[in-house]
Design a protein that fits this description.
- It comes from Streptomyces tamarix.
- Keywords: Membrane, Transmembrane, Transmembrane helix.
- This is Tetratricopeptide repeat protein.
- With 400 residues, this protein is mainly α.
- Helices cover 78% and strands 0% of the residues.
Length: 400
């Protein structure tokens, strides 16, 4: 299929007809692939929803990668991308293609030998900028990331010849985000180092939507660490503020809020993700994401129910403890009052018995008897006061 035919097909698509756009781009891409011809046109945008030339190129390279999922194909794609895509849109297209094609071919990770042989060819033909090696690095790293092979990803980005050949791009935020993803998932790397890499990628002025996605994915897939949920929630909240229509970022925010126990807010976020999930494009991917979101929604609902039951149990337990303390206090007070009453009653009986003996059996004059009764009563009163006071003092200290 020549350039004139391609332009006629793609240029004749009716504006706003998404079905025709999808069908024609798929047909043109399949024809180019059958002919062994790369797309003979330039791309001047990064609009994957409406630009027929970009959509057609995307479908073509998707067929190429499914046919031969290797870094050699990635290198050929990178060369075409540098030559055909406008510079101001190149980063967006390159990141989406490298990570997207890696995901759909994640079951074909190349061996170390295959990687070494292809790397020699790529490095020998690459420009000093390392653009081709960088794209191929992103593609292979994307496969490892999609399989959650964190240790292999860390080793590849740190020491492989292909990654080293992308030297000028080592400080690119997406490269740093992939390193952070590897660090978060590795048991041999501390969470502090992973967070430091994440912060460097996150703070970059060249941070893109794909950088944010890899960062959030890394936190989500990380081995548990202190502040894990809070970090995911905070980063996802910022991502949602910057990209309010992105369903994946709402999904990550739902995860973070769920991990922090904010079940009502998490339910709002997962509902937003389901509402924003577009019912266009690859139906298999849409179904897979929808099932994933619905499963998370069920988990949040279950957590809400458990949290409510736990709160009711805690309230019932607190009431039982409070009633138990009140009962113990009542019993303690009753026993103290009983001791005090016995002391007073004993003093009264002793005074009565002693006064009767003095009154009935004594030979002393009346005045002396009265003084004797007063002394006896005073002594017994002091005794009762000492018993009552001592009891109060001891029980007060014990209560404290």
């Amino acid at each position: 299929m020549d350039r004139v035919t391609v332009d006629a097909r793609l240029g004749g698509i009716m504006t706003g007809d998404s079905r025709q756009l999808d069908r024609v781009c798929e047909e043109v891409a399949a024809a180019l692939h059958r002919d062994g011809t790369e797309p003979p046109f330039d791309v001047g945008s990064s609009d994957f929803a409406a630009d027929p030339y970009l959509i057609c190129a995307d479908r073509y390279w998707r067929l190429r990668f499914l046919d031969l999922p290797s870094i050699r194909t990635a290198a050929a794609c990178a060369v075409w991308l540098v030559e055909r895509v406008a510079e101001e849109h190149r980063t967006e297209v390159a990141e989406r293609w490298a990570l997207g094609y890696a995901f759909i071919t994640k079951d074909t990770v190349e061996s170390a030998r295959e990687l070494a042989e292809a790397t020699e060819e790529i490095v020998s033909r690459d420009s000093p900028s390392g653009d081709v090696a960088y794209f191929a690095t992103l593609y292979h790293a994307g496969k490892l990331r999609s399989n959650f092979w964190s240790d292999e990803l860390h080793q590849f980005l740190s020491s492989s010849l292909l990654a080293l050949a992308a030297g000028p791009h080592h400080e690119e935020p997406l490269f740093l985000a992939l390193r952070a993803f590897a660090a978060f998932g590795s048991r041999a790397i501390t969470s502090e180092h992973a967070v430091s890499l994440l912060d460097r990628a996150w703070a970059s002025p060249r941070r893109t939507r794909h950088v944010i996605d890899v960062c959030l994915n890394g936190i989500y897939a990380a081995s548990p660490f202190e502040g894990h949920g809070e970090l995911l929630r905070a980063r996802a909240e910022e991502a949602v503020r910057d990209h309010p229509r992105d369903h994946m970022f709402h999904f990550r925010l739902a995860w973070g809020r769920h991990m922090c126990g904010e079940h009502d807010a998490a339910l709002d976020s997962i509902d937003a993700a389901l509402r924003l999930l577009p019912a266009v494009g690859n139906r298999g991917s849409h179904k897979l994401l929808q099932e994933q979101y619905l499963n998370k929604r069920d988990a949040i609902q279950e957590a809400r129910v458990r949290a409510r039951l736990d709160a009711e149990h805690r309230l019932r337990w607190d009431r039982q403890e409070r009633a138990q303390r009140e009962l113990e206090e009542a019993l303690r007070t009753s026993s103290v009052r009983a001791v005090e009453l016995v002391a007073v009653f004993t003093a009264a009986i002793a005074f009565a018995v002693g006064s009767l003996q003095v009154t009935l059996n004594g030979t002393l004059p009346l005045r002396d008897r009265l003084w004797l009764l007063a002394a006896q009563g005073g002594g017994l009163a002091v005794f009762a006061l000492l018993v009552v006071g001592g009891t109060w003092f001891l029980t007060r200290r014990r209560g404290r």
